């Protein structure tokens, strides 16, 4: 008796894609307009009809072909290629993104800009008060 999974179990593929997208069964159920138990039934089904598969694909944000052709090996190869490419571009060194500006300088700029805005607001209020006083004294 073989313990390996059948190569085309659509429910398992849906389950793995959902998990890779960090989505719970309840969230998928809500997107499908059903309940968690129905999603569990789908994920335990070896086959599902095309209409339901299209709805699941849309809810997961993938194509029907992506679900049908999904394999763990392909996912691992994809991420390994990205990882390998990052190293090949950096000659084996880990690259880190560096700020091209000093965050403290930006903070000081924002603070100074805020001060200028408050000063303008204060001046506008003073001007308004002076105008109102002139109107009152003129009567």
From TrEMBL:
UniProt feature coiled coil, ranges: 104-134
* Name of the protein in its database record: XRE family transcriptional regulator
Q: Name one Pfam family in it.
A: HTH_3
Instruction: Enumerate the spans annotated as HTH cro/C1-type domain.
Output: 14-67
Keywords, A to Z, come to: Coiled coil
InterPro entries xrefs: Cro/C1-type_HTH (IPR001387), Lambda_DNA-bd_dom_sf (IPR010982)
